Amino acid sequence: MTRYIIRRLLWVGLVVVLIVFLAYVIFFLMPPVDPARAFAGKRPTPEVLETLREQFGLDRPFYVQFGLFVKRLVIGDEYGWPGFGFSYATRSPVREELFQRALVTIQLSLGAAVVWLLMGIPIGILSAIKRRTFVDRFAMGFALFGVSAPVFWLGLMFLYIFWQKLGIAAGTGYVPFGENPLTWLNHMIMPWVVLALLFAAFYARMVRGNLIETMGEDYIRTARAKGLSERRVIVRHGLRASLTPVVTMFGLDVGTLLGGAIITETVFNMPGLGTYVVRSVFQGDLPATLGVVVLGALAVSVMNLIVDIVYAYLDPRVRYA
Amino acid sequence: MSYVQAEGPVPEGRGPLLQVKNLSVHFDTPDGVVKAVDGVSFTVGRGDTLGVVGESGSGKSVTFLTVMGLIDRRYARVEGEVLFRGRDLLTMPDEELRHIRGDQIGMVFQDPMTSLHPMYKVGSQIVEAIRAHRDVSKKEGLEQAIELLGKVGIPRPDERARQYPHEYSGGMRQRAMIAMALALDPDLLIADEPTTALDVTVQAQILDLIDRLQQEFNAAVVLITHDLGVVAEHCDEINVMYAGKAAEYGTRDDVYYGAHHPYTWGLLQSISRIDRPRTERLRPIRGAPPSLIHVPPGCAFHPRCPYVMEVCKVEVPKLIAAKGKHASACHLLLEEKERIFKEEVAITS
Question: B119 vs A225: CB contact, 8 Å cut-off?
Answer without folding.
Answer: no
